[in-house]
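Notes from the pairing session

We agreed to fold both candidates in a single pass and log them together. This is the raw record for the first candidate, unedited. Please don't reformat it; downstream parsing expects exactly this layout.

Candidate A
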Amino acid sequence: MFKKILIANRGEIALRIIRTCKELGVSTVAVYSEADKDSLHVLFADEAVCIGPANSQLSYLKIPALMAAAEITGADAIHPGYGFLAENAEFSEICEQSGIKFIGPSPDMIDKMGDKAFAKETMKSVGVPVVPGSDGIVNDFNEAKKIAKEIGYPVMLKATAGGGGKGMRIVMDESEIESNFQMASTEAAAAFNNGDLYVEKFIENPHHVEIQVMGDQFGNVFQYGERDCTIQRRHQKLIEESPSPIISDETRQKMGAAALLGAKAVNYEGAGTVEYVVDKDQNFYFMEMNTRIQVEHPVTEMVNDVDLIKEQIRVAAGEKLTKPKHPPFGHCMEFRINAEDFENDFRPSPGKIEDLHFPGGFGVRIDSHIYNNYVISPFYDSMVAKLIVWADTRDEVIVRAKRALQEFIVEGIKTTVPFHLCVLENEQFKKADYDTSFIDKLLNN
């Protein structure tokens, strides 16, 4: 086991990792920007190093500063959390060259699975269903037009290096393809320094369902069931749940088996997520594989009674995966509490928290780094907490979650708590009769 882990991240995920490290008897190093000097992860870590100003390009994304912090503190491993450098092959490689373990996949694995076109071809080669589309990168809009004609409209133009909805455009007919190709490529180049695009069939009225996998150095790969992440806005997830309320046991088994097949095909090591799009007839298609721990991992932890961060660290230290104790049980939902004003197009709402009360009680978990008088910075992601609610059934989760959200008090800033309460009152949501367009329809009614 490692002696000291540096956490190359901030906020709730940094605090989440620190908690598991303490239980493992591993010392921790927090890094922080000048804007985050009062954050809880700084307080609870054994050591803390300031790595730069508020701008993340000059702090959390600055590899030399992170490596210097690891060197001066004697850290023998780095956990990247999610976001920032979690899927950065260069960072993983520099850690490897420096004799510091990167708690995540190898640089080669990050490169391969981060290239969506390559990942799609890999999955296709071992029999995992994929969305019909181009065989890899398309060179220009004329080639995209030809492929779109073959597979039929609507189609999706997607950045091969993309994520978070950047470099993605839905094209309904041929007249729109040239302008959308240029816009998607330009956006992708600006966001990822890579403007390459591929084309795939756009699945209308889909659900977004993902399978959590974990692999070790001994060839063991386990899957921990699925998460339904369909409630999203502009490709950003807001509510996740497990199990998915829309898929049958037969589909569930097929999806899990396909995820294992894909992960084993690439000798996957560490925590990863195989993401699918599921149509109204329960046909499922591979979308991408994320080579990191996800924001929504607590949902899987609660229904499996497993600490995924602990397993992730143990695997990185060369230990064997712990076989899941039992199949997933009960039902769980996670609600992302963002510092946003949902009544004004989810406008960011940074500022000082003047009063704070977290909900509690049986089956209620809060992952957060905020506290009374804490100042929410405008420089980073707007998520300030995750409310995770477990119960025996989905209906019971909805009742318990409403109770918990009503107890959730945050004064001084706007949050998405009222939005989540609005969703839980919606009859379509209660009946699981929705797709990825649910939020747009809800807000436009």
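Candidate B (folded immediately after A)
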Amino acid sequence: MSSHPKGLYLLFVTEMSERFSYYGMRALLTLYMVAALFTMTRASEVYGTFTSLVYLTPLIGGYIADRYWGNRRSILTGGICMAIGQFLMFLSACFIQPSIQVEGGAIDPSVDNTLALWLMVSGLGMLVIGNGLFKPNIATMVGDLYPQDDRRKDAAFTIFYMGVNIGALLAPLVCGLFEGSFQDPGRFRWGFLIACIVISLSMIIFWTFKNRFLVTPDGRQIGLAKPKASPIEGGREEGLLTRSDYIHMLVIVILAVFVIFFWAAYEQAGSSLTYFADKQTDKTFFGWEMPTSWFQTFPAFFCVALAPVMNWMWQKMGRFEPHSIQKLAIGLALLSLAYLVIAFGVKDVEPGIKVSILWIISLYFIQVLGELSLSPIGLSLVSRLSPKKFASLMMGIWYLSTSVSNFAAGKLATLYPEEGQTKYLLGIPITDLHDFFLIFVVMSAVASIILFCLCPLLKKMMK
């Protein structure tokens, strides 16, 4: 296999740094909110709304890039917005006042943290805007580095995806060192400040090397704003969207629906699984207690370690390699298995009783096998199937599914069982952790089976 263009590695570093910034903040966010601002249930709702908006705005960012700015300007503007957002999070934690939880888990109303709250909301808003401009455009540029039917694209997106997970691996380890508490919520500010510095540096690196490395094999610059066409040329260009293009876009939309079920379960990592790690997982080693935010390094570590293995395995299978759509269905099946394992591990465990760390590690290990079967392959599919004119917009539509799933993830996380409470999903009582995790077992398994059944039809539509 021939080597990859140097531009891939510039995009790798840029995405790695941006994901470090995002996941460093995300590792602290729910813990920060619960420490002095919200109840656990309210924090889950805010977290779900924020992450859903993070993946909704790429639809707008993709349109702006395709229509007006181009990928490069959108990435740089988005990065600046995210740096401002992280700085506002830093200021929020600078002004936060210690609080305590009173009856029912509510925050003591006598403590006034209004300024810190509005700084946090403003910071999250800037992160939403910045991510919307950044995310669809950097993924689109990966595909633009290669000819349309280049067989290296799947491998390129797997390499690119490793950058995502190296950033996600390092971020909780570094930012998690500054995990605060009810007594000292202001300590969170240093983690937010580190996230701000990293995204700022990444934008400087991107600006410095973009013209040198972001080029096609024949030397043409990629990611620039498209020149304005005359009315006649513009009309003729609009008329070139073929029936095949519409069918391919429909395939992307259908697959995006199934991706919703995957990420709704996977994104429990930032909310319910964080609560589970904090309250019901034994994380003490020889008298030292591991920070809760460090649990979010496990998925990223497994992604970095297993991505080359998965890539090698697909290649070695040769003509027996599953079709890309079948890989997505396999990813959903593995996710169902991951939650089945932890559902078994917590069966009959009472609230407040701590279980072995091996259960959550097992969940993350199997879950990541599913992620590597679905996420980079999905990005590659979108890159291959999207009409050139709407490449960033279609990437935004792909991320729209993640937006819906993150909103659903936040709602599902509110069903996390608390002592003395029974919660309900469609009239079905959720009384313990076993019931809670079974939600994701059933949801992922059903989606996997349906996608396997649809595979022959979708393959035909792709041709």
